[in-house]
Amino acid sequence: MDDSMGEQFDDSDLNITEEVAAPTTQDFGLDDINTSDTEALTASQVIELMESAWLNEKFSPEILPHKTEIVDCLLGQISYMEENLENLESNDFQKSLHQMETYRLRYLVTSYLRIRLEKIEMFNYEILKQEEVREEKNEESYLSAGELQFAKEYKENLEQHFDNVLSFWPGLPPDDWKKEYIKPNLHSFVFLKSKTEIEGVIIDDGNEEDGDLVDFKNGSQMIISYNSVSNLVKKGDVQLI
Amino acid sequence: MFGEKAVELVKEVNRNKDSLSPYNTDLIEQVNKEICGLIEQNMEDANASIAGSSNTAAYIPTVNVRHLSVQRNLRCLLSYHHNRVRCLRNMRWEFGSLLPPEIKSNLSSSEAAWFSSYSTSLAKYMRSIGDDGGVNLGADMKPPKSLYIEVRCLLDYGKHQLGDGTVILLKKNTRYYLPRTDCEELIRLEIFEHLIN
Amino acid sequence: MDPDVLEFLAEKQRVNIIPTINSNVIHLISGDVGPFRAGLPVQVPLWMAVNLKQQQKCKIQAPDWMDVDVLETIKDREKVSRNFIKMPSEHYMVEAKLLLSAAPDDIPRTDEIRTIIKDIWDMRMSKLRASVDSMMKESGSYAAVDNLTIMEINSIRPILPHALDQLYRLKKAARMHGSTQSQNTTTFNSRLTITPFKS
């Protein structure tokens, strides 16, 4: 498998209509979602951003910066729709379609939040430590306020349980175990699609001091180690797939 | 040999990855005893070495082996408990905050305390999501396929109120075609079986 | 990724239906759909098309590519190309499965379509296996996977990422072995479960 694996497909051959183009690859020019004003987006753009965040979170080994604004905005849309639906007759033709859509969107949001919770539990110590570092440096937190609270409680709860387990120990229970905790494998391999032209991505190939440099074309797809592209994922320049 | 019992614990938890076997109090006590014994012996040797002071070097290999055995035992012990916690966690998502009695009886008291705190934290977190009183992350676990699904009732459940207010009588071995949302919880509680055509 | 998640992703693709009912525009959160006029084609998301078809409220129009002649052309091009050609739909497998099972009466020559799509899939899978094989032999640390569709990518997950990860660890271990002394064996090490990778 090499760089030339892809071959450009000529649409004119097959008379492909526009509608088969996947809308997910569309670029809304919003490269920083955290600071952008989500109210200025249309609902369908919010859904696109949610889908993108969901897939990134699904495939990224580490937890990514939270997207609370998008989550809240979409949940607001769903609730509003659900309230309206209560006024419709249950046999209304449109009602079932609206319901179907709200179920799909609820799945999207809750799945996203569940994936994050799983990481928060699995990599609890590591994530809390990183959050502390970010706080000291005055950087934006990766966890939402609710997630951070949950993470802290999870930690306390687990420590309490392990202290109970080790209470047989003569004298104070050892807390050396707190120094060795589960970390995400940042070097694991991910698939991505580039959303823009990117030059000079450095590959960590575990061999030499300096890895190869690779350029991404807009729309090109790669398998690559996550730590080579983690900043691009967070910036929104590439989409994990 | 030191550490053999502790490895048994790890093997046990590895054999039952998706279910929670009874808390192995006996084996854990034996491991704890081994750890305490090793520590005591090391303390004795350390004291003797301080008192005698002439032959300290001769103690070092033995002390080291005991120390490593303690560490290995601790690691296995924590691995056993951590994996059980992970399993309990999955059960919280599967059954909700009330565990079936046959599972509950397999927990140690500390595990039961962990489970109840976890449930509380989780519920608190779910209430904090959005601007609107929270979101139940235990629902919408699968991508929706259609609004209605076919289910079979596995027991004589009796009256059950649906989301739209109608009340139906659920009988054992009867098939129903119901809105997906009304079924999710009953499927999880194994009152309904989802029939996939 | 579970098959139902793959379907979920594909279901937002848009297809043309011919409704048998009339209805005003539906203001979905994801955008407006309709109006529906009986007999006039209208574009809707795939999930809606399947749903309406189940309620017998529409006929589904196969996407342009879901046609024996078009697919034969794709198959021929896939056969002669060394690389993966771009498929007409990012979700061709799922779309075919959902549409052909929901609306076999609306789409002509469904059996032939199924067979050709299966042939294309098999051809691409065997190319993919060969690519993976050579990537492992060259012990590459990245690769372009242009034009592979989501389902095809999913078929080599997790095996390819795992294999590459193992390869990376071996390389790293070999380098460490050359440069450092044996590890300090007395440090307390109680990783709680098998750690994916320790940096």
TrEMBL record, chain A:
Q: What does this protein do?
A: The GINS complex plays an essential role in the initiation of DNA replication.
What does the UniProt keyword field contain? DNA replication, Nucleus
Which organism is this protein's natural source? Nicrophorus vespilloides (Boreal carrion beetle)
UniProt-annotated location(s): Nucleus
Record's Gene3D superfamilies? 1.20.58.1030, 3.40.5.60
Q: In which family does this protein belong, per the annotation? A: Belongs to the GINS4/SLD5 family.
DNA replication complex GINS protein SLD5 C-terminal domain location: 184-241
Which InterPro entries does UniProt cross-reference here? GINS_A, GINS_bundle-like_dom_sf, GINS_Sld5, SLD5_C, Sld5_GINS_A
Per UniProt, residues of the GINS subunit domain are 88-165
Q: Could you tell me what this protein is called?
A: DNA replication complex GINS protein SLD5
The gene for this chain is LOC108563676
TrEMBL record, chain B:
- Residue stretches making up the DNA replication complex GINS protein PSF1 C-terminal domain: 145-196
Subcellular location, record wording: Nucleus
Q: Which key words are in the record?
A: DNA replication, Nucleus
Q: Does the keyword Nucleus apply?
A: yes
Give the top-rank taxon of the lineage listed in the UniProt record for this protein: Eukaryota
According to the entry, every stretch annotated as the GINS subunit domain falls at 57-129
Which CDD domains does the record associate with it? GINS_A_psf1, GINS_B_Psf1
Provide the family line.
Belongs to the GINS1/PSF1 family.
Query: Which purpose does this protein serve, as stated in its record?
Result: Required for correct functioning of the GINS complex, a complex that plays an essential role in the initiation of DNA replication, and progression of DNA replication forks. GINS complex seems to bind preferentially to single-stranded DNA.
This one is known as DNA replication complex GINS protein PSF1
To which species is this protein native?
Answer: Nicrophorus vespilloides
Organism placement in taxonomy: Eukaryota, Metazoa, Ecdysozoa, Arthropoda, Hexapoda
UniProtKB/TrEMBL annotation, chain C:
**Can you give the residue ranges of the DNA replication complex GINS protein PSF2 N-terminal domain?**
3-61
The yes or no answer to whether the keyword Nucleus is present is yes
- Region entry Disordered, spans: 178-199
**All copies of domain GINS subunit, residue ranges:** 65-165
Q: InterPro entries recorded for this chain?
A: GINS_A (IPR021151), GINS_bundle-like_dom_sf (IPR036224), GINS_Psf2 (IPR007257), PSF2_N (IPR056784)
Query: Which keywords label this protein?
Result: DNA replication, Nucleus
Its subunit composition reads:
Component of the GINS complex.
Q: What is this protein called?
A: DNA replication complex GINS protein PSF2
Q: Which organism is this entry from?
A: Nicrophorus vespilloides
